[in-house]
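Researcher: Sequence recovery benchmark, item below. Answer with residues only.
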């Protein structure tokens, strides 16, 4: 499968102020050498705790933040240094859905004005058809019949309905990729499932691919084909969802899996879980060696000095841990067998 979207060794470093005589106090390594690929029709999860660099990665992929190094490619073509026209094409192809549907909708704009703007900018339909197309978009996201909603304002909708409107806006330009940054995190559990089901339906109908950024492994398991696990600006493990859940090969992934509620309460945990203790270290000064060593329950001396190489396993699972081969012996991290 050829990659639709590819991120190559991407780095986003920010100097931060506060040093003496106006000098930067340091450099935040928000994204520090991330590579990933998204195939056509794939739903790829990027998971990790808040502060691990997921949102910065998303912004860089969308061209909203300039990377310090590395590249982003769509259909094999680099999007860095594109002309304005080409960049506009790219921005049409790659759309974003944000976490907070209230903040990302202009409260002074009607739903029609919100949806008409991208339709007009990208010339999707003739001006005379804007209302019909906007109503059709609302119906596509489950707000039917669409026409009566068009003249309402965001505050007249529930959180779930607002997120449907944001999704309608993102699909208005018929994109190929949607980057969803915590798109369901602000919603109630029952609404969350409905929005995920909608996104899955749209994927099939429109041939979309998603980069699904989340801290919620429940979402990953129910929706995503493949997972990249991020820790302190780097991807520490990636692979197909079922493999990552069945046998995580990085202790951090294992801790996340362990903390994730079981899909079936009749299943028991195989072993007791160690809590993931301590905070994520500052990206101003990432720990040497393995970045996870300050929190890793199975760290050994080598971990504090040697950065772990990538270890490859069957099915395309890759882990950056010196001891990934020993994962089956770790006293945590696997979903229990059926009782
Ligand atoms: Fe833990 Fe060492 Fe593996 Fe890092 S390399 S995850 S510290 S065991
Ligand atoms: Mg974030």
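Model:
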């Amino acid at each position: 499968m050829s990659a639709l979207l590819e991120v190559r060794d991407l780095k986003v470093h920010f100097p931060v102020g506060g040093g003496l005589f106006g000098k930067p106090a340091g450099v935040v390594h928000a994204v520090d050498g991330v590579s990933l690929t998204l195939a056509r029709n794939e739903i790829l999860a990027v998971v990790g705790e808040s502060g691990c660099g997921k949102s910065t990665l998303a912004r860089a992929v969308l061209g909203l933040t300039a990377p310090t190094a590395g590249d982003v490619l769509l259909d094999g073509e680099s999007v860095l240094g594109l002309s304005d026209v080409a960049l506009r094409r790219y921005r049409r192809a790659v759309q974003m859905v944000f976490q907070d549907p209230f903040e990302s909708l202009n409260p002074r704009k009607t739903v029609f004005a919100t949806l008409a703007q991208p339709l007009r900018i990208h010339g999707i339909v003739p001006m005379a058809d804007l209302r019909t197309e906007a109503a059709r978009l609302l119906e596509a996201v489950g707000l039917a019949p669409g026409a009566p909603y068009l003249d309402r304002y965001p505050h007249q909708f529930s959180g779930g309905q607002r997120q449907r409107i944001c999704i309608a806006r993102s699909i208005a330009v018929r994109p190929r990729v949607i980057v969803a940054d915590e798109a369901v995190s602000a919603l109630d559990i029952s609404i969350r499932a409905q929005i995920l089901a909608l996104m899955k339906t749209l994927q099939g109908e429109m041939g979309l691919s998603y980069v699904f950024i989340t801290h919620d492994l429940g979402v990953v398991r129910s929706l995503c084909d493949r997972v990249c696990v991020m820790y302190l600006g780097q991807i520490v493990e990636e692979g197909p969802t079922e493999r990552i859940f069945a046998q995580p090969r990085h202790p951090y992934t294992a801790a996340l899996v362990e903390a994730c509620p079981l899909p079936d309460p009749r299943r028991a945990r195989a072993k007791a879980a160690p809590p993931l203790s301590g905070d994520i270290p500052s990206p101003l000064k990432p720990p040497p060696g393995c970045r996870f060593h300050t929190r890793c329950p199975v760290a050994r001396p080598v971990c504090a000095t040697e950065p772990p190489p990538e270890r490859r396993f069957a099915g395309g699972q890759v882990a950056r841990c010196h001891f990934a081969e020993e994962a089956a012996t770790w006293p945590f991290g696997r979903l229990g067998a059926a009782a």
